[in-house]
Amino acid sequence: MLGTLEEDLQKIEDMEDSAEFQEKLQGLRKKMLGLRRLIFIPFIVFMFLHLLFMTGVRTGVRNFMISSILLILLPPGFFIVYRMTGIFSGRNKGLQEVYGKELLEPLLRNFYPNLTVEKQGIAPEEVKKFTPKSQKYIQDTFLCFHDDRDLRMGNLESFHRTSGKNPMDIFDFVGQLYCMKSPVAIQGEVRIVPTDRSIIFKNEVQIRYPGCRKGEKKLDTEDIEHNERFDIYTTDEFGARRFLTPEVLRVFSEKFPGKELSLYIKGDLLYIAIYSGQHMFKAPNNKEEIKSLSFTEEYKKLRSSLEYIEDICKAFDA
Q1: Checking CA distances to 184, which of 58, 73, 96, 207 falls within 20 to 30 Å?
Q2: Where do the H-state alpha helices sit in 59-137?
Q3: Domain residue spans in the chain?
Q4: What is the pLDDT of residues 25-59, one digit of tens each?
Q5: What is the chain's alpha carbon radius of gyration, rounded to the nearest angstrom?
């Protein structure tokens, strides 16, 4: 578990002092710099092919073999550039995965001995039940604590593609997912999602999140403010009301004011989604940042995120 900032930093500095550790750290820097360079190679290759093709068109090149080669090479070039967009939007996780497994995991094991960093932490079919409706869901950098809380948390981005002549990706969710033991076990399921309102009449509607499903019942609580902000759907009314105590309702209003938050309980597991608009635990991709990479400095950046995770757990602690 976390100690004071001074105690934790001293522990990491002691670890970094050894020559063996410094050798491993230097190897990690080289690996991350190599992955960073790979990002730009497809772009250079495509631009070269495009320039060659345009030069041939302008000079009237009609050589059948050259034209054929260019025509064969250009489609893969377009595909490479498309894949590159995934790299820049965070959808290609090569650098992120290395950062997670080779820096985050050994660093955080100083405080959480069983922790592992995984690419995915929550089953996709469960994620769809308590996050906005979307076409594509991408998880990354999940901290799996393997503790009594069964705590897992990581990033999620989901998006859908528009139709028409110029389709584009629209992000529906960018934030964090949490999973932990629920203070109250449910026989069925409970979903608590933000309420939408129609533009004209301002009445309650459910557009972005899955609405009331077959077998579910919509509940209201005694907290009027909560009813206006959230929709509650459940297949276990008794279990849902046991969970929604005045203390829990107070957590919603005091702990997360103005934040888009959703909850889902299934059995003895509690899932939370918080739309933060950003990723946690992002790998450095600046050349100078990678060259000066250090566990001590990374921990200083991560400390507030770790405290926030502990804060979330305490808010819904059994």
Answers
A1: 207
A2: 64-88, 94-99, 105-108, 124-130
A3: 8-17+20-37+93-315
A4: 999 999 998 887 655 555 555 566 556 555 555 55
A5: 24
